Amino acid sequence: MRLLSVAAHPPALLAADRRRLGDFQLRLLAPQDVPLVLALREEVLAGLADPDLYVREDDEEAFVRAHIGADPTSSGETIGVFDGSRLAAYAMLGLPSPDHPDNLGRVLARGRDAANIASCMVRPGYRGRGLQRTLLAARFSLAQAHGKVVCVAMVSLHNHASRHNLLREGMRIAWVGQLGGLRRQLLAIDLARPWDFDEENLRLVDPLDWERQRSLTAQGWWGISEMEGRGPDKLVFARHQPATPAVPT
Ligand SMILES: CC(C)(COP(=O)(O)OP(=O)(O)OC[C@H]1O[C@@H](n2cnc3c(N)ncnc32)[C@H](O)[C@@H]1OP(=O)(O)O)[C@@H](O)C(=O)NCCC(=O)NCCS
């Protein structure tokens, strides 16, 4: 049995590996790229193994435009990974205002400091090279450049690959509940000040056991890693330790 996903903090950069970005170009997307993102989303959404993994937006184009800086009301940026002229992957950072209903940081009472780790999709032929993790680290930097130190992502309980990647980059399951009628986990990271956990006292939980995870997070337990080797993989929960107030000098 071994603990997985115990990430370094601040998140460790991935080992340099030509398979990851060697042949790709990375750039922030602009309004003229909206059709490329819509086409990639269409391909990925059509091929999902389980529709709960990622739910289509009511207005796909408005969602993409909002995260690409295409409208005056938009609040986000999108990083694109290109293989020549082909969009291989994209990752969005949402920058809603502190009180905006879309600001996921509000659940942790950190709306003012928070950016949303929004949608990330990798075209099927480009998976398995760690692009989601690479783009996660890039979005942490982008969030910090926007003055945001807390990043929050929303994940379906069925999206094991995505949750695995977020945990490996140092994010923790801080909240479990219903958002927009869907059962979701919120994973968060504070890039300025790592959270502490009581790692002496752990609870192992089935990744799909929504009720148990919801009850634990409501009592101050957070999901800190995955554990392999006990039948199906388990999520490891530990008590979140409140930050010790700084001692005035
Ligand atoms: C989720 C997604 C972005 C990941 O793409 P990717 O960066 O190519 O992911 P990789 O294949 O490199 O990474 C997969 C990792 O997840 C792990 N993984 C895969 N399936 C898993 C499972 N069922 N349980 C746990 N971990 C799993 C792999 O072992 C690998 O981990 P490792 O790097 O530690 O070995 C991609 O699958 C995708 O676009 N999915 C559809 C859209 C989506 O769900 N987006 C995320 C929510 S916004």
**Poorly predicted sequence stretches spanning 5 or more consecutive residues:** 4-8
Structural class: alpha+beta
The assigned CATH architecture is: 3-Layer(aba) Sandwich
Strand content: 25-35%
For the sheet with most strands, the description reads: 7 strands, mixed
What is the name of the CATH class?
A: Alpha Beta
Radius of gyration (CA) equals 18 Å
Work out the count of structural domains. 1
Q: How many beta-strand segments?
A: 11
What spatial form do the alpha-carbon principal axes imply? globular
N-to-C CA distance = 45 Å
Notes on the protein architecture:
By secondary structure, this protein is of the alpha+beta class. The chain has a single domain, classed as Aminopeptidase, CATH 3.40.630. It has helices at 18-21, 34-46, 60-66, 131-145, 160-168, 210-218, and strands at residues 2-4, 25-28, 76-83, 86-94, 114-122, 150-156, 172-179, 182-190, 196-205, 221-228, 234-241. A seven-stranded mixed beta sheet has the order 2-3-4-5-6-8-7, with helices on both faces. The structure holds coenzyme A. Coenzyme A binds at residues 44, 53-54, 119-122, 127-132, 159-162, 164-165, 168.
Provide keyphrases for this structure:
single chain; 249 residues; alpha+beta; Aminopeptidase; seven-stranded mixed sheet; four-stranded antiparallel sheet; 33% strand; globular; binds coenzyme A
Brief rundown of the structure:
The chain is of the alpha+beta class. It has helices at 18-21, 34-46, 60-66, 131-145, 160-168, 210-218, and strands spanning 2-4, 25-28, 76-83, 86-94, 114-122, 150-156, 172-179, 182-190, 196-205, 221-228, 234-241. The chain has a seven-stranded mixed sheet with strand order 2-3-4-5-6-8-7, sandwiched between helices.
